Amino acid sequence: MIHPTDNPSDLYHPGEEVAVLLPLPLGGFLDYRVPEGVTLEPGQIVRVPLGPRTEFGVVWRAGSGALPPGRLKPVAARLPVPPLPAVSRRLVEWVAAYTLSPPGAVLRMVLSVPAALEAPRLQIAYRLARSLEELGIRSTPGRLRVVEIARAGVLTAAELADSAQVSAAVVRGLADAGVLESVRRGPKAPPRPDPALPGPVLSPAQADSAAALAARVADGFSVTLLEGVTGSGKTEVYFEAVAAALRLGRQVLVLLPEIALGTQWLERFARRFGAAPTPWHSDLPEGQRRQAWRDVAEGRAAVVVGARSALFLPYADLGLIVVDEEHDASFKQEEGVIYHARDMAVLRARLGGHAVILASATPSLETATNVQTGKYTRLHLPDRHAGAALPEMAAIDLRKTPPQRGRWLAPPLVEAVTATLAAGEQVMLFLNRRGYAPLTLCRGCGHRLQCPNCTAWLVEHRRVARLQCHHCGHLITRPSHCPNCDAEDSFVACGPGVERLAEEVVERFPAARLEVMASDLLASPRAAADIVRRMADGEVDILIGTQIVAKGHHFPRLTLVGVVDADLGLSGGDLRAAERTWQLLWQVAGRAGRAEHPGRVLLQTYQPDHPVMQALIKADGEAFLAEEAEQRRIAGMPPFGKLAALIVSGVDETKVDTIARALGRAAPRDAGVAVFGPAPAPLSLLRGRYRRRLLLKAERSVNVQQVLRAWLSRVAIPDAVRVQVDVDPYGFL
Fold first, then answer.
1. What is the domain extent for residue 228?
2. What is the pTM of this model?
3. What is the DSSP letter of 484?
């Protein structure tokens, strides 16, 4: 592998060859000639001809010399954007090699906003030209505010109106009158967070951890697990490391599993540093994404908070990465280039020579094992902030006290909700299942409504009068007749989703103010933020939610959490089913009793003796992880062994089976390697594509990527069939 450097002597002059990497899933680099009057450097973003069109790409290194100079096409243009830093180019190469992805496909994640590569559009802004008195214009409070703000800087009409709290018409009127004059201005730099602002008073344990993290920011590469019980103040502690990086003039990246739902986190950050960070996620408007990308590349964005894709932004000088809720499964990218953002964050920090902090109340087994082996260090916050106690945990054995027929809340949970509401406190009911019911079937013949594109049942969403597939989005209205037996009005809902649970809650507690929080019910991040705000302000009595309610929210008046189906995540044969259930339920439980009122958590379960339930009741995560680690060690499963999956898919089932069988016959027979399959995936039909899986299991000493490359080279894959490689699979569907 060639590792690019930032050696300033590596310049390419007119007539010389350069190898350019395009953000396309091609096999490698393409050679071009440097045109007259242009000098290029490694990392330079350029536009180049490709067939009848032009594409943008990145100058990577000197050309291969494979073609005579006369046959090389010249680079079309050098784009007005900073060169891609060497560490970003190394990250592209490493991720491509680790995941067996084309380097161009990885580069596409870096150059994710093509519009940002062009020169930024100049904006029309305004500055103060003459006073109101000079022009004989009557003073009003709004006009005076506009004048005062315009005296201090050059702002757009929208910025002036927003800052002065006036309408755009007031600003236009002052411009027309000559008080303001228009100028052309580039995009405004984002406000810079101030590390000198005082943070909250930390406890001795928090202060010690914060000081240790701040020291590591200046010491080069390190990985630290910041572990603390829910409500222990981990965010405030790692904010001190953020402040340390800002004092050094370095950029900071904070990865959150659900940035679009992180309203409380953003408010905390703004209070601590006096300015908002630069957000990065898929819900941002295109113009904001373009500006954010450019601000990162040019070093103006001091702190970026984002989803996993923020890892690939071209940071000018990154000095710290924080992965909050590092255990969260949403950090695994399951399509396209398949990678785990937590692991790639550690790689990015090593390549950049800076610190990375992994924060969690329920660390992943991989991270806990790296701490035990000395690869990572650990800082522990064992107590909740301000003396709050951990909630009391108890199981409701549904075998002994089941809900009434057609109901989902067992009598002990109903009694607890009644008592909590009577005390003027809040309740959260957790059910990790969207919609009204997960299954709809005909009571006459048993026919089940299934997605035509996926091996999945259609989920009823009664609020919108539709049945939907949660895998491909296929929608239908509820049929009036069964398509199998033609019975009329024979379909019944089976099992509960959050909408059906809400129906029961309204019936049982009609006076309670109820909100339901699930991803499909939230029209926008603003809608989610509004529910969180009203819950925090005590305007909601009962909150029903899916896993998004577990994402670090702080509700001071919430004292009771009821988990309606604690067993839900334990089935399905997933390698990490027990670990994920433990993490999710402990996080949900951690929403209760975070202020002066003690909290209580009730787990409705048919398996009260299951190790996960016992670990939750006893609040003994270390014992659970130790037992889980021993089981994985015996089985040779990650993190004590390696896994890689091949997913064969296509629209023609016969061709998919043919290639899957060919891969099975060509499977490696190396020592320390075992291959299972091919077999139909649990979701054997997904989005109209038939799917087969092969699973490679290997000892830790095996170079899995080398084995996979050799394996794939032995089978010719036709264009009609796709083979995806998933190194370190987290999902097995």
1. 204-385
2. 0.88
3. T
